[in-house]
UniProtKB/TrEMBL annotation:
GO terms of molecular function: hydroxymethylglutaryl-CoA lyase activity; metal ion binding
UniProt keyword ATP-binding, yes or no: no
Source organism of this protein record: Allokutzneria albata
Protein name listed in UniProt: Hydroxymethylglutaryl-CoA lyase
InterPro entries reported for this sequence: Aldolase_TIM (IPR013785), HMGL (IPR043594), PYR_CT (IPR000891)
Entry-linked NCBIfam families: PRK05692.1
Upper classification of the organism: Bacteria, Bacillati, Actinomycetota, Actinomycetes, Pseudonocardiales
Length: 299
């Protein structure tokens, strides 16, 4: 593989679980720095109900001030048509729609059952297509559910088949609670590709049990060319004990750079962002590269 597309999801998925709320100004600065570092797809905001995710209640204000740079695409998380209308009015370039793989996770996390989530996706797909906005569907808890336990690969593939009927631009396989292993990644990626031919796959991995990076590299090995990453490795599902965050942008970059894989992202710039983020959050971020440094060392 010669190149990999990295999607920075820190401004949305990373910040949504933080106890310290960043100001709108800080969120915009975070996004500006990510763009300057070379990241070209950024999941910037969420259009979930503000009272449910107060960390991201200022979505419209953030979108009003993000830098509009040619080639940079901003995504917003939406769960239903109301969220889509807010996202379109705010000027997003793409939307990320979540469909959970188990009934209990769907009801607790999204407030609706799986069937209703699939119906919402179908409605969103039709309206988004008419506006030219790109659509991604994230299969949440695709590797395991905090309430129902293991999720059968066949169940995930069956849901993916139904998602594919409405023609998403991308399907993301999400290890939401960080329980997956590389063999699962290969089975799911191959299975979903078979029922959604021609739909690009994306990987979203959490490092809760220290398998996130192995899973990310396994995804690349089986043809997934797009990965979600988070500056500093912040984030994590609130439904899992001791969440350790998403795979860190800088730690993934280090591996890819050493492998000779092009990303267009400056790892040293990301390290600076991570240090800034640690100050704003009042804690050390989970990413490791900032502690050990690059190799060979750079100045």
């Amino acid at each position: 593989m010669h190149s990999v597309e990295l999607i920075e999801v820190g401004p949305r998925d990373g910040l949504q679980n933080e106890s310290r709320l960043l100001s709108t100004v800080d969120k915009i600065e975070l996004i500006e720095c990510c763009v300057a570092a070379g990241l070209r797809r950024i999941e910037a905001v969420s259009f979930a109900r503000p009272e449910k995710v107060p960390q991201l209640a200022d979505a419209e204000d953030v979108m009003a001030s993000v830098p509009r740079v040619p080639g940079v695409s901003y995504a917003g998380l939406v769960l239903n048509r109301k969220g889509l209308y807010r996202a379109l009015a705010a000027g997003v370039d793409e939307v990320n729609v979540v469909v959970a793989t188990t009934e209990e996770f769907s009801r607790r996390n999204l407030g609706v059952g799986v069937e209703d989530a699939l119906k919402s996706w179908t409605e969103i797909a039709a309206e988004a297509a008419s506006t030219g906005v790109r659509t991604t569907v994230t299969l949440a808890a695709a590797f395991g559910c905090p309430f129902s336990g293991d999720v059968a690969v066949e169940e995930v593939i069956g849901i993916a088949r139904r998602i594919a009927e409405a023609r998403p631009d991308e399907i993301s396989l999400a290890d939401t609670i960080g329980v997956g292993t590389p063999d699962q990644v290969r089975r799911l990626a191959n299975g979903v590709r078979a029922v959604a031919p021609g739909v690009p796959l994306r990987g979203h991995f959490h490092n809760t049990r220290n398998t996130g990076y192995a899973n990310a590299l396994a995804a690349l090995d089986c043809g997934v060319a797009t990965l979600d990453v988070t500056v500093g490795g912040i984030g994590g599902c609130p439904y899992t004990p001791s969440p350790q965050g998403n795979v860190a942008t800088e730690d993934v970059l280090y591996a890819l750079d050493r492998m000779g894989v092009r990303t267009g992202v400056d790892v040293n710039a990301v390290l600076d962002i991570s240090a800034w983020l640690s100050e704003r959050l009042g804690r050390e971020v989970p990413a490791l590269l900032g502690r050990a440094g690059t190799f060979p060392p750079t100045t």
